[in-house]
């Protein structure tokens, strides 16, 4: 069984992992608090939230299974070699568990707060049905063949797919509204920092083990950081460069408006929306 060669790198690995956990976990709160203060979820794309819940649920299944199950770990070592370290850390399980909880809370806010004319699109509903039907098929095949690592890899593929898809509706909504009002940039800044520290953690393990297997052995963790960093940068450009003005009022139906409101009033409505 693989072990750490450097105590210092092991400590750095754990520090980076928990820093990523804290950053990524805190990143959920600005949006939740913003919704609570505004008593409105107008400006938050509902497709983003429901797809995000599927994504984090799939990621939790993968992380918890590979971290806790000896059967899954055995098949991982059979595939990548007995000397390779398991690429899932305790902070990965903690993050995905917390992410499922906070995303569910955000979904609850959507149900109780002012939504304007926004709703979950039929396309997203169709995607969710297709994804969970595919997951059910994978579960049936995996149990029949006792292919446990293959089975959780299916959930890893789902979370990668959802990570790509989930950001697109929000980016499009911001583009159509020519505004990021109602969408917390604090979430994005923390998410970006978490992505960088997550990559740092994986790099430290690779340096210590003199192997890059953990990058493709846990392709889900690799891709979640890469994709998140890309879209986080896109949202930052939208918020600070493309649509920096806080003077445009945005109607509740999500379309662009022409009326002008005082800048202080808009800031008050945005709550924790960082500018």
TrEMBL record:
Keyword NADP carried by entry: no
Pfam families, A to Z: PQ-loop (PF04193)
Compartment(s) where it occurs, according to its Swiss-Prot or TrEMBL record: Lysosome membrane
Molecular function in Gene Ontology: L-cystine transmembrane transporter activity
GO cellular component: lysosomal membrane
Transmembrane segments: 12-36, 93-113, 125-143, 149-168, 180-199, 219-242
Record field: compositional bias (Basic and acidic residues): 265-275
Region entry Disordered, spans: 249-275
Keyword entries, A-Z: Lysosome, Membrane, Repeat, Transmembrane, Transmembrane helix, Transport
Secretion signal span: none
Residue ranges, compositional bias (Polar residues): 253-264
InterPro entries according to UniProt: LC_transporter, PQ-loop_rpt
Main location: membrane
Protein topology in the membrane: Multi-pass membrane protein
Protein name (record): Cystinosin homolog
Species for this entry: Handroanthus impetiginosus
């Amino acid at each position: 069984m693989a072990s750490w060669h450097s105590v210092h790198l092991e400590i750095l690995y754990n520090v980076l992992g928990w820093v990523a956990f804290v950053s990524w976990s805190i990143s959920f709160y600005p949006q939740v608090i913003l919704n609570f203060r505004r008593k409105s979820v107008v400006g938050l794309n509902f497709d983003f939230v429901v797809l995000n819940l599927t994504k984090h649920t799939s990621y939790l299944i993968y992380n918890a299974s590979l971290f806790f199950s000896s059967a899954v770990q055995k098949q991982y070592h059979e595939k990548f070699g007995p000397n390779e370290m398991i690429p899932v850390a305790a902070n990965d399980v903690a993050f995905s568990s917390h992410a499922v909880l906070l995303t569910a809370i955000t979904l609850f806010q959507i149900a109780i707060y002012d939504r304007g004319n926004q709703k979950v699109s039929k396309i997203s509903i169709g995607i969710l049905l297709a994804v969970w039907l595919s997951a059910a098929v994978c579960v049936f095949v995996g149990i029949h063949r006792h292919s446990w690592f293959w089975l959780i890899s299916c959930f890893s593929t789902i979370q990668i797919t959802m990570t790509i898809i989930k950001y697109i509706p929000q980016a499009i909504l911001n583009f159509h509204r020519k505004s990021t009002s109602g969408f917390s940039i604090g979430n994005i800044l923390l998410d970006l920092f978490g992505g960088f520290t997550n990559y740092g953690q994986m790099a430290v393990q690779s340096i210590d083990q003199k192997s890059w297997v953990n990058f493709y052995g846990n392709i889900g963790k690799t891709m979640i950081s890469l994709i998140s960093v890309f879209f986080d940068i896109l949202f930052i450009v939208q918020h600070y460069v493309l649509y920096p003005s806080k003077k445009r009022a945005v109607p509740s139906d999500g379309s662009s408006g022409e009326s002008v409101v005082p800048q202080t009033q808009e800031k008050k409505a945005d709550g924790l929306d960082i500018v």
